[in-house]
Amino acid sequence: MGVSELIKKLDQSSSRRIQQERRVFPIQPPFDLLPQLLRGAGITIQLTIFSTVVAFIVAFIMGLGRLSKIRLIRWVSTIYVEFFRGTSLLVQLFWAYFVLPLWGINLTAMQAGILILGLSYGAYAAEIVRSSILAIPKSQIEAGVALNMTQGQIMIRIIIPQAVLIMLPPFGNIIIELLKGTALVSLITLSDLMFQGVMIRSTTLRTTETFSMVLLIYFVLALPITFGIRRIEGRLSKGRA
Amino acid sequence: MNENSVKSPPMVRYQKISKSFGELKVLREIDLEIAAGEKVAIIGPSGSGKTTLGRLLMTLEKPNSGTIEVDGDYLWHKKVDEKLVWANQKHIRSVRAKVGMVFQQFNLFPHMRVLRNCTEAPIHVLGISEEEAQERAIAMLQKVGLGQKLKDFPSKLSGGQQQRVAIARALVMRPKVLIFDEVTSALDPELVGEVLEVIKEIAAEGETTMVLITHEMEFAREVADRIIFIDGGLIAEQGPPQKIFENPENERTKDFLSRFRQQNRNY
Amino acid sequence: MWDWQYTLSFMPDLMKALITTISATLVGFLLAVVLGLPLVLGRRSNFKPLALLTTGFIEFFRSTPLLAQIYFIFYVFPKYGISFSPFAAGVIALGLHYATYLSEVYRSGIESIPKGQWEAAAALNFSRIRTWVSIIIPQAIPPVVPVMGNYLIGMFKDTPILSAITLVEILQTAKIIGAHSFRYLEPITMVGILFLLLSYISSVGVRKLELRLNQRY
Fold first, then answer.
1. Is B108:C217 a contact under the CB 8 Å cutoff?
2. pLDDT tier for residue A105 given thresholds of 50, 70 and 90
3. Which chain C residues are closer than 8 Å to B108 by Cβ?
4. CATH of domain A44-188
5. Residue B186 contacts C, CB cutoff 8 Å
6. How many domains does chain B divide into?
7. What is the full per-residue pLDDT of chain C (217 aa) written as tens digits?
8. Beta strand pairing status for B24-34 and B39-43?
9. At residue A117, does pLDDT exceed 80?
10. CB A211 within 8 A of CB C72
11. B185 or A238, higher pLDDT
12. Fewer CB in a 10 Å sphere around the end CB: N or C, chain C?
């Protein structure tokens, strides 16, 4: 066979190969990847729920703390909030998972994740609690005083119920941010959705399908939160001006 | 002004103008002609459609049906092969160049000083040089009595002063038609007079066609050539001030005027 | 407990990496500021398909993790011929991600402008573009600059995520230092402190800027 004929033959076979690859693309829906991804998603959901609980608790403690009449409590809360808002989430995660063991505190990746996500997003949520409470007009407090209620009663029965309504939309946004933040725990070896995605991709090299599915699943996970918050907003404003 | 002889084409012509907001019919097939240089006062109860009439002319609302002509050109429509079609933004802008408006809420640009409020449009819309724009603006601001306030921001001025700046700002553009939409309704009573004085001066100068949507009956009587009473989306009655205020024919006109006089007497 | 000598020895390397971190932040933010504008204009467009498409785009980027987006841009695009360096991929991801946040910020600024301003512009026969340039944007931006400043700080704190695609920024450098000497305590703590310091200084700056801008008129 002459050289030119050889070249022609190679050209033909490679263009055939490219055509075959083209037929495969558009990509078939990668349903076979789902089971493993969904296992990761399960971890993600667990992590989100537990962290949210921690964040809420922290938010109320620190948010109310920022409004306290006692200076020490105000200081501590402010320092807490400024610290967690001023540092990088990933750095905090690394610190909890890699540095704490040096002092004898051995956390699993899940524990570190829940702790840090809860404490960190709790700081942001604390600001929401604080500003929502401040948004309630002073006249409401004065009405409570006129009815001879105690400080505590005023806070619990009058202020907080109204403040909660204002808090909901921004809280919803924080939960979505938290959901997105869980992806970082993949970098401290927790087998969440993101971690599974990276794993699958490195073993199967089906990069496009894998990462597209990962993005899609996160999007689907976020949807109910967005809609849920809007519905709660609607429900709670019934009967209000 | 003789209402019967409109020998020269009207400066403004509404033909079968209708406007609804959702279910609410605000204007019902209104026909109205305003001659060049005429001063027309539009009065009527709130919700009667008088403000909408002005806003349609200023292209702030779009009519549901009917046409408006300004100085011979269709404002909202274009003539294409003998048919009228809805016009595009470019056409609308070219016709609306002849119309100006002063708003109840003044709507001055808060981030610009008084002088710039009045020069921004001449420079960027009319394309004249900054020096000439400033000359025109300063002359106009002096005319409305605010020659000393050129460098102030609107927030530093009283309501009456702001409204006078708004009037100057509109006048610098040299519109053929100037609409005054309840321009004193948002002012404290003691500030109303200074604004009305300015408007009277402009009216006395003659050339500009003026549409005054107003509650100030005394003022309307003084300045207007014709009073138009709108009620329920229709022109209930129109005519020269003496006729409308002293001998109204329509029941609803009488009603409105007597209610109005009562309310003001109780002041 | 804390080895100061060790700390002093690695600080220069850390500071060099800080430059990478800061430049990634600045470039990413610039991209976000610029991309946010067409996004908000598209979202507000009267052309329904464009508005829907843009809203969908914005919702998608806001609901999915930055890390996942970074992986996608860094690993998927080369499959179709477009390769990015870790810095480029990171900056593009940051830019797109934050552009969606900023577009919402721009939107709130624009929507807070009273309707009367638009009407006054129409009464003076301003063209659409001139209305935006002279009237709307100068009033919309100053109130939202503090919020934009907070997003800048947020982006700065997100840059360690870029270590996942091998960008050698400050956290990655700390990990390398730690791996070398088997001591992670000092490097990672110093990184935390650096972030804290810079964020705090920036947020004080943003607050000062806010006060100055609000005194305008």
1. no
2. confident
3. 120
4. 1.10.3720.10
5. no
6. 1
7. 788 888 888 889 889 889 999 999 999 999 999 999 999 999 998 889 999 999 999 989 989 999 999 999 999 998 888 888 999 999 999 999 999 999 989 998 999 999 999 999 999 999 999 999 999 999 998 888 888 988 999 999 999 999 888 888 888 888 888 888 888 888 888 998 998 888 888 888 888 888 887 766 6
8. unpaired
9. yes
10. yes
11. B185
12. N
| Residue entry with tokens 């946010």 | C36
CA dist A154 → A56, A177, B48, C166 (Å): 21, 32, 48, 54
Sort out which chain C residues have CB atoms less than 8 A from A214's CB and list them. Answer: 68, 71
Asked whether A169 and A231 are in contact (CB, 8 A), the reply is no
Which residues lie closer than 8 Å to B168 by C-beta, 6 or more apart?
Answer: B118, B137, B140, B141, B143, B144, B146
Residues 6+ apart with CB under 8 A from C163: A90, A187, C169, C171, C172, C175
Report chain A's terminal Cα–Cα distance, integer Å: 89
Domains within chain C, CATH numbers bracketed: 4-214 (1.10.3720.10)
CA angle B119, B123, B127 (to 5 degrees): 150
Domain containing B152 equals 105-174
Neighbours of A36 (CB within 10 A): 16
Q: Give the up-direction half-sphere exposure of residue B65: CA atoms within 13 A in the CB hemisphere.
A: 5
At A241 the pLDDT is 45
* Domain ranges for chain A: 44-188
What does the DSSP 8-state code read for residue B60?
S
Residue A26 has pLDDT above 70, yes or no: no
Residue to mutate among C196, C203, C207, with most A CBs inside 10 A, is C196
List subunits contacting chain A, requiring 3 or more Cβ pairs under 8 Å: C
Assign B17 to helix, strand or coil.
strand
**What average pLDDT does range A191-206 have in this prediction?**
89
Contacts of A172 (CB under 8 A, 6+ apart): A225, A226, A228, A229
User: Contact at 8 Å (CB) between A142 and A151?
Assistant: no
> Using CA atoms, how far apart are residues C156 and C150, in angstroms rounded to an integer?
10
Q: Does chain B touch chain A (at least 3 C-beta pairs within 8 Å)? A: no
**Below-50 pLDDT ranges, chain B:** 266-267
The candidate with the shortest Cα–Cα distance to A180, out of C68, C151, C153, is C68
Residue A22 is predicted with a pLDDT of: 47
ipTM of the complex: 0.86
Whole-number average pLDDT of chain A: 84
* Residue of C113, C124, C127, C145 for testing the chain B interface, max B β-carbons within 10 Å: C124
With CA atoms as reference, the chain C residue closest to A184 would be C67
